[in-house]
Each structure stands twice: as structure tokens, then as C-alpha cells.
Specification:
single chain, 215 residues, 7-stranded antiparallel beta sheet, 3-stranded antiparallel beta sheet, 5 helices, 21% helix
Length: 215
């Protein structure tokens, strides 16, 4: 427990940080050029997620950030909107205290892509802001469509830190993918409560594209 004393104190102090910057955080979704609507998916950018002091302090003191994305393709031709397909992926941001760097990686299924290692949190934020083209393409059938993006941001719990280390070594990634060992439910609950008490609760952002037709 002594090893956790300093991070706990610093993280608790982050509760007093202003949260105004979080209001600027958002996810953006953009359609491809008109001539490519039927053959390319939309692009997603993430802005302002690491700008508030609270998130930065938690990152700096060993709490990785997990950003879980879900982009859905909807048809609005009928009486009710119809879900045509969806794609999900994760991005993890982690501070390495030994190298004094911030590591950012995207996980799509079992494929991990490094987005870079940065000397400061601003570099990590710029990596999140790069456009990512979502592999979700409409079919050939002409219909009125739109995309909806949902982004969930949370600081991983203390119990997930070892699993993040395993992920960085290329091993399986149950923490990143939202899977847990069912035998540790009580411990997991306490750790999750702790992270939320210090300001690591889950935040959700939503955005929708303009409506379009493929033809």
C-alpha cells in the first residue's frame, strides 16, 4: 500500500481541478467526398480528450486512459431507422514513467497499431486528433443513410495496470477489450469504485454525420 500513497494523494488532489476543458472535448465524424460515399467509410477525429488537468494528472500517475469507439451505419428510408452495421475499436493512452513518454496505440480486433510515443501529453492529444478512416462502407443499394459515432472514455482501474503491461508486450488484452476474470468480481468492484472516486468515471460522447445517399 505504501507504493500507492503518492499516486493516490496526487490523484485525489486532481478532483479540485477545473473541469471546464472537458466541455470542449468531442468526437467528430466526417463523410468522404461525394464521389466516394459508396466505397469509403467516414473519418473520425478525437479532440480535447486530454486537455483537462484531472485526466493529465491521472495519466501521469499510472492510470491509463481507454477510449472505446463505436461507429454505426443507419438507414433512414423506412418508418424507423434501421441499423445496417457497426465497427468498434479501442485506443489506449499510457504514460511510461521510466522513459518519460506517452504511448498511444489503436486496437482493432486483435491488431495493435502504435500511434507513436510522445514526450508530452500534447503529442498524445495530437495523435488522437489524426483522422481515422472507419472500415464501414455502405452497400450498393441506394438508400438514405447516416453514421453515428459513440465514444466512451475511462481511466483503467488499478487492477488493469498489469494487463496493460501485458498488452504492451503483445500478449492478450482482456483489460483493453473489456473482458475481466470473473473470479475477481469483488476486488474489481472496489478498484472500479476507487478510480471513480478520484475522478476516473466513464464519459460518453456522441456525434452524427449528415444524411447522404450513395447514388
Amino acid at each position: 500500500m505504501r507504493r500507492l500513497a503518492l499516486p493516490v494523494v496526487v490523484a485525489l488532489a486532481a478532483l479540485a481541478a477545473p473541469l471546464g476543458a472537458q466541455r470542449e472535448a468531442r468526437v467528430e465524424i466526417s463523410l468522404p467526398p461525394r464521389g466516394f460515399l459508396a466505397t469509403q467509410g467516414p473519418t473520425v477525429r478525437t479532440l480535447g480528450m486530454l486537455t483537462d488537468r484531472q485526466t493529465r494528472d491521472l495519466l501521469r500517475n499510472g492510470f491509463p486512459a481507454r477510449l472505446h469507439y463505436r461507429v454505426e451505419l443507419w438507414s433512414s428510408d423506412g418508418l424507423f431507422d434501421d441499423l445496417k452495421g457497426q465497427v468498434e475499436w479501442d485506443v489506449v493512452v499510457r504514460h511510461d514513467p521510466l522513459l518519460h513518454t506517452y504511448q498511444v496505440a489503436r486496437i482493432v480486433g486483435e491488431v495493435v497499431t502504435s500511434l507513436g510515443s510522445f514526450a508530452d501529453v500534447q503529442g498524445a492529444q495530437e495523435a488522437l486528433a489524426r483522422p481515422f478512416q472507419v472500415p464501414l462502407v455502405p452497400g450498393a443499394r441506394p438508400e438514405r443513410l447516416y453514421y453515428a459515432a459513440v465514444l466512451e472514455v475511462e481511466m483503467l482501474s488499478l487492477g488493469d495496470l498489469d494487463e496493460v503491461e501485458r498488452w504492451l508486450k503483445g500478449e492478450l488484452r482482456p483489460a483493453v477489450r473489456g473482458e475481466r476474470n470473473p473470479g475477481t468480481a469483488v476486488t474489481r468492484g472496489v478498484r472500479t469504485l476507487f478510480v471513480r472516486l478520484i475522478g476516473g468515471e466513464k464519459r460518453t460522447y456522441r456525434e452524427r454525420s449528415a444524411r447522404f445517399r450513395t447514388r
